[in-house]
Design a protein that fits this description.
Pfam family, one: Biotin_lipoyl
Keywords: Acyltransferase, Lipoyl, Transferase
Organism: Saccharopolyspora griseoalba
Oligomer: single chain
Protein name: Biotin/lipoyl-containing protein
Cofactor: (R)-lipoate
CATH superfamily: RNA polymerase II/Efflux pump adaptor protein, barrel-sandwich hybrid domain
Largest sheet: 4 strands, antiparallel
Shape: globular
Distance between the termini: 59 Å
CATH class: Mainly Beta
Structural class: mainly beta
Length: 106
């Protein structure tokens, strides 16, 4: 087992912080990837953030009503290690980027 911390993601449009309206999980809960995790409020709207992975919620870093900045720890999960390292993608599974070079016109 390993721990993986999920930070507050960039919510777009220049938003740098958010308030926790309501936690939809509690410490000790088991969550599946994409299960509802938390409701956040920004200066522009309210948004529900889904769980980024499957695992047990081991720590909620901010209480309901609290504020945090983008990149601050939001929640920590206890997860099963896969392929030896949590959160990495083996090279043979990594997305491939294709670049097409176009020669300059004379």
């Amino acid at each position: 087992m390993a721990e993986a911390t999920f930070p507050l993601p960039d919510l777009g449009e220049g938003l740098i912080s958010a308030h926790v309206l309501e936690w939809l999980v509690a410490e000790g809960d088991w969550v599946e990837r994409n299960d509802p995790l938390v409701e956040l409020e920004t200066t522009k709207s309210s948004v529900e953030i889904p769980s980024p992975q499957t695992g047990r919620v081991s720590k909620l870093h901010v209480a309901a009503g609290g504020e945090l900045d983008v990149g601050d720890p939001l929640v920590t999960f206890t997860v099963e290690e896969q392929a030896g390292i949590v959160g990495t993608v083996p090279e043979d599974r990594a997305p491939q980027r294709r670049v097409r070079l176009i020669p300059p016109e004379d």
